[in-house]
Design brief:
Number of helices: 3
Number of strands: 0
Largest sheet: none
Mean pLDDT: 89
Shape: elongated
Strand content: under 5%
Radius of gyration: 15 Å
Length: 52
Amino acid sequence: MLRLYLAGKTQREIALALDLSLGLVNKHIAVGTNYLVLLQTIEHGLVDAPPS
């Protein structure tokens, strides 16, 4: 689902393609996006951290 969204599909298009409600698609995209942001933050924190 997140791949479809990142590929430029609208939430409505994804809901129709996967036969899901628009609300459920919205919720999953929000959770997936938050997860990606968390991973990016961790990655940057580990890369940008000064050596100890």
